[in-house]
Amino acid sequence: MQTKFLRQGYWLPPLVVLFFLAGSSPLTFAQETQRAETCNADICYIKVTDDGFSPERLVVRDGSTVVWKNVDSSAHMIAGGPAENPALFNSSLLSSGRDYAFVFNGGMTGEFRYFDQGRNNMAGEIVVAPRVLENPVKQVNIDFADPSSGIKIAMAQGDVTAAAAVPQLHKLTVWLDAPEHGMLKMTFDRRLLDSQVMGKDAPFEVLVDGKSAGYKEMPATAATQRTLVLPVEEGAKSVTVVGRQMSVDLLGYGEAQVALDRAEKAIAEFRGNGIVVADAEGLLLNALDAFAAGKYRFATSLANEATDLASSANRTAQAAIQAMNIAEVSINATKTLGINVPEAEEMLHRTKEMYVYGGYDDALSMAVQAKMAATDSTDQLYTAAGIAGVSAGWAVVYLRLRHKGIARAAAAEVRKKEKVAPPPPAIEVEGGSAPVEMQDGGLVSQAVALDLVFAEKPHIRRGDRDVLRYVMGQDNGEALLADIRNRFLLPKSSAWRLVKRLEREELVEIIKFGNQNLIRCRLR
Length: 524
Description:
Number of helices: 11
Largest sheet: 6 strands, mixed
């Protein structure tokens, strides 16, 4: 089989294509380098698999970042460098799904061999070349199976295996598998490839395996298309059509390049700031694969998703850092009160571990829980102190009322003897605060009434308590919701939820007052 393959010359077209790609690359190397895969991006990726490294030999530009991604279920350890410094970089142990990056900057050029320290048979090589001006002649792969690609190809007695264009040369090539004589029909969207002179259609130049060939142009079924039909001989490998105008904008090539460049820069920036963006890098790898296959719209979608994912990871990471700092401050403040909060401290420790490994969503959630655990301990202390204070206050009030009751009883006895009408009952309260009627009909001071309520309902939030005090202190124990918002600088939604909570506790009632809401304290 191999002898027949070589004898019939099947190897020539692939070799020509490989030579063309190497010649169009912005990097120039010796012949042995042409077998390597070239990456002209700022971030280049190597997959670590159970079978080895992919690609095993990679050519990059000076200043590029190379990322090894472990897609194997087992752990690996990458180490290597130039011949004079074979331990220049070392990844330590890479568990499954993790990655390691190294930047080849500062004029690092030449060959860098690396190995998997856990497997002696796994090795790879990176060739770093200096940056030079890029050759404007580039090959653009086309996914001809895409109905919107701008090219329709049908072949009798054979198959079309690939298609590519060189925009600067107005040239489009399709590669064939022609086991026998057949016919090839190609329909081009004029926006992709056309040939016109002075606004009129001009003939194309057609080459079969590099040799000039004739064709017949079919009547156009649409003004935006041109259709060519030509015979192909047995064993033909490629057909090239050269026109006078070509644009790959129809393919979405330029948009995909912009999206990929944006994603690479975003990922590089966040990675440089210590943010774990492994998921975004995985999407970028898929986008690069789609781009190489000529699926430019799909590549654009994946690249944009990678950018969004990296940005989201960065935002969540920053929020997690802020939440961790707040939780740590709350824990320390609670401990200064003599309260140990081991549960909150354990949560904060786990939060920091999650953050290190890139679990920013979980880290943010756990940090909030740690802060709440520390705050709840403080609230319990304040609640206990409040209840004790209220109890002591009531003892004082009871003694005073009892003393005054005895005095009033004595005065009543005197008046009875003197047949003098008694004055209306009243209760003196400290600070001159107005008396408040409780549900049982008794009169107590505002402060005492609120202390009673808060002692019975310790779960009421501090902010809600402040608002209740404010409303009770207003004329007739009433206040407009707008005044409450302005007094406490609350958004509309927050203020509404607050008074609804007080209403559920049966402490206030909400009354429509024109276009406004009047909040009336029920402790009147």
